[in-house]
Amino acid sequence: xxxxxxxxxxxxxxxxxxxxxxxxxxxxxxxxxxxxxxxxxxxxxxxxxxxxxxxxxxxxxxxxxxxxxxxxxxxxxxxxxxxxxxxxxxxxxxxxxxxxxxxxxxxxxxxxxxxxxxxxxxxxxxxxxxxxxxxxxxxxxxxxxxxxxxxxxxxxxxxxxxxxxxxxxxxxxxxxxxxxxxxxxxxxxxxxxxxxxxxxxxxxxxxxxxxx
Length: 212
Description:
The protein is an alpha/beta fold.
């Protein structure tokens, strides 16, 4: 079996992956010992129905392009391992983090506790997550700043690590909305393309993703 590695789970729609996602990895890697990052695209996001979503295959391909761009963006970072796992896509519908965590423990040799990377905007409902009591025994919650201030969390039995980072904007929504209103022959505006790694922007343009 491969050597055990400190591992972090990063979930989301990644529709598309953008520079903010990669900067998040850089922040976690700079502040912790995690060197393997497993990105798990959701099968369906009920909160993002406003514009044409990309298929799961497109989202996974864009993630791989983002991974290949990482070392050029952060050349001083240590060697990292990036994985895209399609377990939630294959599961279909709405997936629970607890089920995904169990899957990852079975599939990968993980050193210590698996990290679940999450925004501080989710802390208010964390204790309502499916199988929360079981989940908190399995993982460390690595909390990134989104709201500007850390949300108080009352369960002292949970393992939480708070990171100090610039606020992470939801550039995926901004990208989709901007592309959705383009004319059939219009190219991606430079200010929108610059929100993504160059390889991802080229992919979005080539496959005409997110257009009406």
